[in-house]
Design brief:
alpha+beta; two-stranded antiparallel sheet; 140 residues; rod-shaped
Length: 140
């Protein structure tokens, strides 16, 4: 009687290589995923701030000159990760109209700049000046 040597399956070395490749892929994917998750939280915060901006402006236009809205922030890291930590680039409002002034700098109209650095567990306070109608957004 002749015995056939039918060995099927993977060797230990092949399995270790597969496990190592999966580990490398996971090590690359986790930081990217957490970064995107934080950016989505910041996008949620900015959308909520825009909603508060609209609420304050609407209240002002209907006669409530002391309108103020507090928006709790959802982000888990301090500062804006989406804007590379540059808080001076965050504007909320209808549009950007850059105009050159006599000093050569540009200004924005129709928008409010988000001032301050957003903090983990912080809030954004949106207020409107009762005389000029200027909206102020401050992160605390």
């Amino acid at each position: 009687m002749e015995r056939k040597n039918n060995k099927k399956g993977f060797t230990l070395a092949e399995l270790l290589i597969v496990v190592a490749i999966i580990a490398v892929l996971v090590a690359i994917a986790i930081p990217i995923f957490t970064s995107q998750l934080e950016k989505s939280r910041e996008a949620t915060d900015l959308a909520n701030i825009r909603s508060g901006y609209a609420e304050v402006v609407t209240a002002y236009l209907t006669g409530d000159t002391s309108a103020s809205v507090e928006v709790p922030l959802k982000q888990t890291k301090d500062s804006w990760q989406t804007f590379n930590g540059d808080d001076s680039k965050v504007y909320v409002g209808s549009e950007i109209n850059s105009k050159s002034t006599s000093s050569g700098s540009s200004s924005t109209t129709g928008q409010a700049q988000v001032k301050g650095t957003p903090k983990k567990g912080g809030k954004a306070v949106i207020t409107i000046d009762d005389k000029e109608g200027t909206v102020t957004i401050e992160c605390k």
